[in-house]
From TrEMBL:
Gene Ontology cellular-component terms listed: cytosol
Keyword Kinase: yes
Name of protein: Probable dihydroxyacetone kinase, phosphatase domain protein
InterPro entries on file: DhaK_L_YcgS (IPR012737), DhaL_dom (IPR004007), DhaL_dom_sf (IPR036117), Dihydroxyacetone_Kinase (IPR050861)
One function term, GO molecular function aspect: glycerone kinase activity
GO BP annotation list: glycerol catabolic process
Entry-linked SUPFAM superfamilies: DhaL-like
Originating organism: Rhizobium etli (strain ATCC 51251 / DSM 11541 / JCM 21823 / NBRC 15573 / CFN 42)
Occurrences of domain DhaL (ranges): 6-208
Taxonomic lineage of the native organism: Bacteria, Pseudomonadati, Pseudomonadota, Alphaproteobacteria, Hyphomicrobiales
NCBIfam families referenced in this protein's UniProt entry, alphabetically: dha_L_ycgS
Length: 220
C-alpha cells in the first residue's frame, strides 16, 4: 500500500492539530529567549498549510503539488523566520517526489530527509547552534540510517522522533549562534530552543502518521 494525496492531507491536518495543542507551550519557550510568538507563528502556518492542502482535489493532485501548496500557504501566513524555512522544506520535499502519483515508503523517507535538508540549507545552520536544525538533522540522519539497515518505515521514523527529542533537549545547554537569542550570550543556557521544540512536535506528528497508516495496512 502506498501514501496518496489524501493521506498527505491527513498528515498536514495532524501536524496542525498537534502544533495547535502545544502553541502556548511554544510561546512560553520563546518568551524566555525571543519574542514569545513562535507558537503563534507555527500554529498559524501549520493551520494555513493544512487548509490549503485540504482544499486540493485529491483525485487530480500529485504529492508534489501537495507539498508546494503547503509551502506557499505557510510562507504567505508566517513572516517570521520559520516561514521561509518551512516553505523551503516543503518545496524540497515536493521536489524529492516529483513525477510520483503516489509515494512508496522509500519515496516518503526521501521527502522526510528533504524537509530536514531544506531547513538546514535555507537557515545556513549546523547542529550545535541552538536552532531547529538540532532536531531536524539528527532526526533525518537517524531515519536514513535505520532505513538503510532494513528497518521498516514506521520504526525508522520512531527513531527519528527519538533523535529529534534528544536534539531538542540538548539545545538547553547551548548558546545561540543565530537569530535574536544570539544577542543574549550565555543567558540562553538552560532554555530549550523553541524552533527545535516545534520541530520535534512536527517530526513526532509525522512518525504518528506513518504508524497510523501502517496499522491501516495491517487491518486491511
Amino acid at each position: 500500500m502506498t501514501i496518496a494525496t489524501e493521506d498527505l492531507q491527513r498528515l498536514f491536518a495532524l501536524i496542525a492539530r498537534d502544533i495547535a495543542a502545544r502553541r502556548d507551550h511554544l510561546c512560553e519557550l520563546d518568551g524566555a529567549i525571543g519574542d514569545g510568538d513562535h507558537g503563534l507563528a507555527m500554529d498559524a502556518g501549520c493551520e494555513a498549510a493544512a487548509k490549503a492542502v485540504a482544499a486540493l482535489d485529491r483525485a487530480q493532485t500529485a504529492p508534489t503539488a501537495v507539498f508546494n501548496a503547503a509551502a506557499k500557504a505557510f510562507l504567505n501566513t508566517v513572516g517570521a523566520s520559520s516561514g521561509p524555512l518551512y516553505a523551503t522544506a516543503f518545496m524540497r520535499a515536493g521536489a524529492a517526489v516529483k513525477d510520483k502519483s503516489e509515494l512508496s515508503d522509500d519515496d516518503f523517507l526521501r521527502a522526510f530527509a528533504a524537509l530536514a535538508q531544506g531547513i538546514q540549507e535555507r537557515g545556513k545552520a549546523e547542529p550545535g547552534e541552538k536552532t531547529m536544525v538540532d532536531a531536524w538533522k539528527p532526526a533525518a540522519d537517524a531515519a536514513l540510517a535505520a532505513w538503510a539497515s532494513g528497518t521498516p518505515l514506521s520504526q525508522s521514523l520512531d527513531m527519528a522522533e527519538q533523535a529529534a527529542r534528544q536534539g531538542c533537549e540538548a539545545t538547553k545547554d547551548m548558546t545561540a549562534a543565530k537569530g535574536r537569542s544570539s544577542r543574549l550570550g550565555e543567558r540562553v543556557i538552560g532554555h530549550i530552543d523553541p524552533g527545535a521544540a516545534s520541530a520535534a512536535i512536527v517530526i513526532a506528528s509525522i512518525a504518528k502518521f506513518v504508524e497510523q497508516h501502517d496499522s491501516c495496512r495491517i487491518d486491511m
